[in-house]
Design a protein that fits this description.
It is built from 17 helices and 12 strands. It is of the alpha/beta class. It has 2 domains: about 15-215 and about 380-395, 3-Layer(aba) Sandwich (Rossmann fold), CATH 3.40.50; about 225-375, Glycogen Phosphorylase B (Rossmann fold, 3-Layer(aba) Sandwich). It has a 6-stranded parallel beta sheet with strand order 2-1-3-4-5-6, sandwiched between helices. It has a 6-stranded parallel beta sheet with strand order 9-8-7-10-11-12, sandwiched between helices. β1, α3 and β2 (about 60-65) form a beta-alpha-beta unit. The longest helix is centred in the first third of the chain and has 16 residues, at about 40-55.
Length: about 400
């Protein structure tokens, strides 16, 4: 059984890392690259959370947090995030087919060789710069850098260490590479899934998915009406507009609604026009929010999409959630586990949220029950756990 991160609001990062350990780690000095791919916001957020944890524990370490796509060939570096966004927002069935087809094909030798040739070609500039002065350790929060650096290790062109931080509760086989020294998994089920692909249990640590500082549980006031947060992830996707229309009909019971549109400027502008004249409930429309934990901690209930990092943030803050229809593939796996554990509600259409809201307003103890379950499974110090394993394992 893996050691659990503290999961109560009284715990702090300082209490998680013992004083002696902190003093020893402060002397550590190595070069670390944390690599992500800018396809959705979660991979970058996880990378930054691990970077901050390492810098806090070991100030002598030189830590760089880099988007590997920025050093790939044009037009691949531009098309990758654009095509991904288009598929998961407009052509979800095609995305689901692509996800599961590539998952099935991934172990085949020819398909693996094809990916190697393609990745090596696209990442040639990155590889050239990387090998000029390679870091001691690479931490990847996206499968693409796992594959690129994994192939370099496999060919003995890179002799440092490589870690994969899986940012969903399920795992696509693109994450699996024999050259990875250690995997960090969100839950025990993720660990078992990685083991089924031939990775030994000793190379997998169950730490939780890393979240940024501030995502810790706290007691809610629980009076004066519900405070609800509606979020569409960093890309501002999902049925956000339909959910807002439903919430606007609740003059009683709902005190405040915060809506986060991410970088979807069109949605932000549209909702600001639509909600300008409403007084109850109070509606606040946000674009991309840097201090997202403040909105989480102020909310009694969150309605959002089941992305891996978002799920981890809900668990870490013990905030009850209603999850909208998942993107096929990774979000389906995330939501499946949450439903199995009784940790969240799920809806297929915005209209379905009304039934759940009516139940909560009639029986507020439902939120308390969910908070207790979430606090049990939350890992607010996953980033610190990963940093600790990386730094201790290097010495």
């Amino acid at each position: 059984m893996e050691a659990r991160s503290p999961s109560t609001g009284r715990d702090t990062e300082a209490s998680y890392v013992g004083e002696r350990t902190r003093e020893a780690l402060a002397l550590a000095a190595m070069r670390i690259w944390i690599l992500y791919a800018k396809a959705g916001a979660g991979h970058k957020m996880a990378a930054e959370a691990v970077r901050d944890a390492i810098q806090s524990m070991a100030p002598s370490c030189e830590v760089a947090c880099l988007d590997i796509l920025a050093q790939c060939r044009y037009p691949f570096r531009e098309l990758y995030p654009l095509v991904y966004r288009m598929l998961v927002t407009r052509f979800t069935r095609i995305w689901g087919l692509f996800f599961w087809l590539t998952h099935a094909l991934a172990p085949l030798r020819f398909f693996r060789w094809l990916r190697h040739v393609f990745n090596a070609f696209q990442s040639e500039a990155f590889t050239r710069e990387f090998l000029k002065n390679p870091p001691d350790y690479v931490i990847a929060t996206h499968f693409f850098p796992v594959e690129v650096v994994g192939f370099l290790k496999e060919g003995a062109r890179y002799t440092g260490r490589l870690a994969g931080v899986v940012t969903d509760l399920g795992v696509h086989r693109f994450w699996i590479h024999p050259a990875v020294d250690v995997y960090f998994a969100g839950i025990e089920g993720t660990r078992r899934a990685i083991m089924r692909e031939g990775i030994s249990s000793g190379r997998i640590q169950v730490t939780g998915i890393p979240v940024r500082r501030g995502f810790v549980p706290r007691e809610r006031e629980g009076n004066g009406g519900l405070k609800i947060l509606v979020a569409g992830g960093g890309m501002g996707v999902g049925p956000v507009e339909g959910l807002v229309e439903i919430l606007l009909t609740y003059a009683n019971g709902i005190k405040q609604v915060d809506v986060v549109c991410g970088d979807n400027r069109a949605l932000e502008h549209k909702l600001k026009l639509k909600t300008a004249r409403f007084g109850t409930p109070s509606i606040r429309i946000h674009g991309f929010v840097e201090r997202m934990h403040e909105l989480f901690l102020g909310a009694d209930l969150i309605i959002t999409k089941p992305g891996g990092v978002t799920v981890s943030e809900c668990l870490a803050t013990a905030t009850p959630c209603i999850f909208t229809r998942p993107i096929p593939g990774q979000e389906e796996m995330n939501l499946s586990w949450l439903k199995e554990q009784g940790l969240a509600w799920a809806i297929d259409r915005p209209e379905d949220a009304r039934t759940i809201l009516e139940q909560i307003l009639a029986d507020p103890s439902l939120l308390k029950e969910k908070r207790m379950k979430l606090k049990r499974d939350g890992r607010p110090f996953a980033a610190q756990a990963i940093a600790l394993k990386i730094l201790e394992g290097f010495h």
